[in-house]
Amino acid sequence: MSIIAFGFAYIWIGKAIMPGIESFLKGHGFVGSNYKREVIPTAFGLFLYSMLIVQSLLLLLWPDTTSPYFTVVNSGWGSPLHLYLVWSGMIFWAGWVDDTKGNHAIKGFKGHIGSLLRDGIVSTGLVKAGMAGLVALWAVIELGGTWYDRTIRFIVIVLSTNAVNLLDLRPGRAIKGFYLGSIVLFIWSDSLLFLPYWLPLAIAALLILPKDLSGKVMLGDTGANLLGFGLGFSLSAAAPNGVLMIMSLLLIALHWTAERSSLTTMIERNYVLNSIDQWGRLR
Fold first, then answer.
1. Those residues with Cβ within 8 angstroms of residue 4's Cβ, 6 or more apart along the chain or in another chain
2. Is the dihedral of CA 175, 249, 133, 119 positive or negative?
3. Environment class of residue 67 by beta-carbon count within 10 Å: exposed (0-12), middle (13-18) or buried (19+)?
4. pLDDT digits (tens, 9 = 90+) for 198-236
5. Rounded CA separation 28/99 (Å)
6. Which pTM was predicted?
7. Would you call 32 helix, strand, or coil by DSSP?
8. Minimal CA–CA distance to 128: which of 94, 102, 156, 104?
9. Which is the most buried residue in 103, 125, 130, 263, by most CB within 10 A?
């Protein structure tokens, strides 16, 4: 029952702090235009990262540590869980800077490199990419393994971090992409060691989803990159190398496609993908 009570406490706190975070974003002008040119709160990844902090505080304060979930956290994975909060914070910070200070007219990897070479300007998007690479490198060193293990994990973490952000162009799409990618975790992972990393983000994303689908808030890079990092790290921590290799190839293909054409157009032309994309959308 302890883990159930823990879950209820986590969800209750999430519901309690969400209105305050939305009010904070509105009150301080952290807003942006969505695809319909409507001005709504952006950078709602602030809620996601806040919920990671909430989990860490609950784990420190919770009296009963006998459930499997707590056992995973308090075993040899305890240190990586604390580092995970640091890594997520670095991803969050880079996304926050891009959301609040970035030039959103610059699109894609070519656009950011072009801005550097042509104008000598290091874009916030380029800073974000560099941060993702730094975090991924630190993470794979902590995870250990051979040079091949670390290389394939690095690719998955970096590309997954950006992949969910590529989808964040319509209400609910990024969160749906996160959940679809998460299916791989439950089917092909060697263990459930990913749960302390994946589950808090999955629950927090579910709490945001109604507002996201209705077009009332935007995850922004702050949220989409954080979801992508959580998914990529969880895969790297628990999935076998064969699965990671397939995922890396799929992620490379996704980024290659996004650089050359519109993912939105591609989704709209595919009946299955478009049906998933439209599901639950209220606007």
1. none
2. negative
3. middle
4. 999 999 999 999 999 988 999 999 999 999 999 999 999
5. 13
6. 0.89
7. strand
8. 94
9. 125
